Amino acid sequence: MSITSKLSGFDSSSSSADARVQKYKEVIEKIFVDKDTDNALKIVEHVVQDSFPQVVARDIMNIFAKAFDHLQNDQVLELGEATLELISDKNMLEEEECIIRREVASVHQARKDFSDAAKCLMKIKLENTVRNIDPKEKSEILVSIAENWFSEDDAVNAEIYLNKATHVILDVEDEEINTRYRYCKAKVFDSKRKFVFAAQAYYELSSFEGSAIEEDNKFLLLKNAITCAVLAPVGPQKSRILTTLTKDERSKNCPNYEMLERMFNDKVINKKLSQEFESTLEEHQKATGSDGHSILETSVLEHNISVVSNIYTTISFEGLGTFLGISKSNAEKLISNMVIQGRISAILDQRSEIIEFEKNEREKLSIWNEQIGVLCNDVNTVLSKILKEFPEAENYIAQ
Q1: pTM value?
Q2: Which residues belong to any copy of the PCI domain (predicted)?
């Protein structure tokens, strides 16, 4: 007996709806175990007919959608895509469509066809649906789309879907989804060279107390945070994240700590240290700007200009160029951009080619306080270690 005749027999019987669904379930289970995708598709064609009772059709298709794990990847794609063509316009089957799309997308993802995976998931109805979608499911789908776009080197689309996830993920307590969201966001910031935001995002993940991130991975995230903080443009936001990272005792174990420490303490960065640091960068972090300088070179030059501003009251364009090891004109362009963007206080006299640095006392005091705070924390850490080793020393401290 053909599958169509068997199904028609179920429909013509006087059985209850539940008994009818049970008969379909037994057939579906056997077909999927046998990996008979041709007959599986015939079931879909049969139950999506307009004459078929919608409630029964939904129950049958729900069983059908959840049986895909019996199939091999090629069969998931073949049957999944054929099924989606038949049900994508059926509002009553939105949940079943979602289940199948996620199965198909997982195969595309396993094959590194990330664009196809993202496009498949994007067709899942998440707004104005006939079914209730809880924030966890919605967030997971949006984050998955973002992850696939990012894996396809499309940070623009990845950011779009991360922003959509932002509106719903606040209501989600699931550690894994939150961690995936925050990690993808950090990677997107990093990729788009929003290094201050990337550093903050990486650092938050490295400090995460849940079990979703292993300690070794936290160390790598901290290292990424330091790298992005170093690459960030000079300014108050960079100063704050440098302070946060320097205060963290774990940073001292990172291979890029020396660069972090020198930047935080306003010390000149030399070429040797810069080259050592560059060897640790990822390819997108080595990009060169229109001025011919790499991201790191620009960051180091701006940092050294900031150091100069703390040493000198005035300096010539020529003198600044000599100090930085670049031409006079390049030095002028760099500091001009910093002044225009409000990242350094200075007056440039074009006629006499002199730079006069304006001392922002409030900003200097803030940085000084932060540095004093770090020093005090270091002293307290040393003191705690001494007291742990020599408890009797507390009597002398009390005096």
Answers
A1: 0.82
A2: 194-362
